[in-house]
Amino acid sequence: MTKALIGGNSVEQLKSIIARVEKLEEEKAGIAADIRDIFAEAKGNGFDVKAIRSIIKIRKMDASEREEAETVLDTYLHALGMVPEFEAFDEAKEQAVENESADQLAKPDGHYLQAVTLVVLDRNASASYLQRLLKIRYNHAAELIERMEREGIVGPANHLGKREVLRKPEGEAA
């Protein structure tokens, strides 16, 4: 008995491939139904399903993708006037900037001192954070963070892209 061949492959092999794909399609449909049931349960318990879907989408991204998406969204929202103008400095931050020497403020990069103050006081060494508060380009904010790393103000990025703020605010014990 000879096996039928299609393009040099057996018909049995072709049937096996098709059967495996069909089985996986059935499993996929079952999983999709299970997911729909979970979302229906969430909606029935008062949760916002759109928000849950957004969270799941965000959790699938790595830290740099997430930061880039947030930056782009913030930039667009700001450009469209959909984000209220918020003050970059509260009283403590303003006081810290005023206490810095005039020669440091006269340095070529006027944003650096402000960026250091924000990072040290808020304990947040993120380029997108600086971009939003200082209203500067993302690349410029990233350069400021890199300079802070070179000067020992923040540590290197960890496996999640987060940086430890090494410098303590003025008046805080080391």
TrEMBL record:
It comes from the Bacteria. The keyword Coiled coil applies. InterPro entries: FtsK/SpoIIIE/SftA, Ftsk_gamma, GapR-like, GapR-like_DNA-bd, WH-like_DNA-bd_sf, WH_DNA-bd_sf. Residues 105-170 form the FtsK gamma domain. GO terms for molecular function: DNA binding. Residues 14-41 form a coiled coil. Keywords: Coiled coil. NCBIfam families: PRK13694.1. PANTHER family: DNA TRANSLOCASE FTSK, SPORULATION PROTEIN RELATED. This is FtsK gamma domain-containing protein. The lineage of its organism: Bacteria, Pseudomonadati, Planctomycetota, Planctomycetia, Gemmatales.
